[in-house]
Amino acid sequence: MTFQLGVWHADTPLSLGAAGEIFDRVAAGKDPGVKPAPAMKAFFNQLLRRYPTLDQWPDDNVADCPWEVQPRFNPAYVIFTLLPAHAEQLEAVIIDMALEHDMTVYDPQTPDLHMPPRLEDQTFWRLETLSNELVDPAPQDVQAALAQLRDDGQSYVLLSQCATAYIQAVLDQGEYVVEYRDKDTGELFQAIHKDLAPVSAAFAAYRRGESGWRDTLAWEQVE
Fold this sequence. Notes:
Shape: elongated
Number of domains: 2
């Protein structure tokens, strides 16, 4: 099973969907619309000094080489393809190094997105569902998305205000399962309710930035 990571520089916060589109265009050999960044070369060289390409790897322990496909430098973006046995360890290294160089990392497996500190806490409202994504959604967009949730435990509505804070909901067996991630602490909380009205009220108040948006539901911290 192939394990890949995409790395590039972003000037503004990205949504998960937008990052996925960039990755897919790169993987398909298309122009992703990403600008070259001077930091890319420094990041790439630092990583390969620690984990050389297969043709530079010492012959006596070539089995330890983590690359399934030789990394190729590009001043705008790089896709790394890792051997599964090394993926977990090397993913952490790539993310740490990339963030140090102000780069963004996209993991298509999860999917997951890692942005440098200067972008993580910037307010960037987005509304995401299984079939759509809106940047800076209006309150009526949020309410419409919640009303269209299917009772299958798979469809979802995710409203995020930045890379590290969000509220999301799924409808499963007649119950709305709602979670939010606190921006300041990173802690995750969950509430379950059978009625849409209080769920919609929580989402609406969250979108408006009201301090009392949590009051409409009974939350419990997820350990």
